[in-house]
Write a structure and sequence with these properties.
Blueprint lengths: L8 E2 L4 E6 L2 E6 L1 H7 L2 E5 L6 E2 L4 E7 L3 E5 L4 E6 L2 H4 L3 H4 L8 E5 L3 H4 L4 H11 L1
Antiparallel strand pairs: 1-2, 2-3, 3-9, 4-6, 5-8, 6-7, 8-9
Length: 129
């Protein structure tokens, strides 16, 4: 089974969120990066961009396909992982660490609470396999 850290929340679109107060760090899950294959480019938003929950904020391009990335929580982008411009493959090697994508100042922290726990996400993956 995929690597699913217990301290994160998960979406059915295979994004993860790490909540720290009203700040959410967002990336794609190990399952998502594995499904995509080798990531070669990531199109990300700019600091100050605002998104509603479940809105597309960018895309990940791999050798197999281009996939949209959705923000599981609404808010304003406060930081973008600029390192991914030079090393997009960090998403493959360390999706929950160096491969994080954006940090969002959440409008409603309850949106993160409504996301799947690690156990629920693992069950979701098993049910859709």
């Amino acid at each position: 089974m995929s690597n699913i850290p217990e301290n994160l929340r998960y979406s059915k679109d295979h994004e993860w969120v790490l909540v720290d107060g009203d700040l959410a760090t967002i990336g794609i899950t190990d399952y998502a990066q594995h499904s995509l294959g080798d990531v070669v480019y990531i199109d990300m938003p700019r600091v100050g961009d605002k998104f509603a929950a479940h809105e597309s904020f960018g895309s990940v391009e791999s050798v197999k396909a281009v996939s949209e990335i959705f923000t599981p929580v609404g808010g304003e982008v406060s930081e973008v992982n600029e390192g991914l411009n030079d090393t997009p493959e960090s998403v493959n090697g360390d999706p929950y660490g160096a491969g994080w994508m954006v940090k969002v100042k959440m409008d409603n922290a309850g949106e993160a609470d409504a996301m799947l726990s690690a156990v629920e996400y693992e069950e979701y993956l098993a049910a859709s396999a």
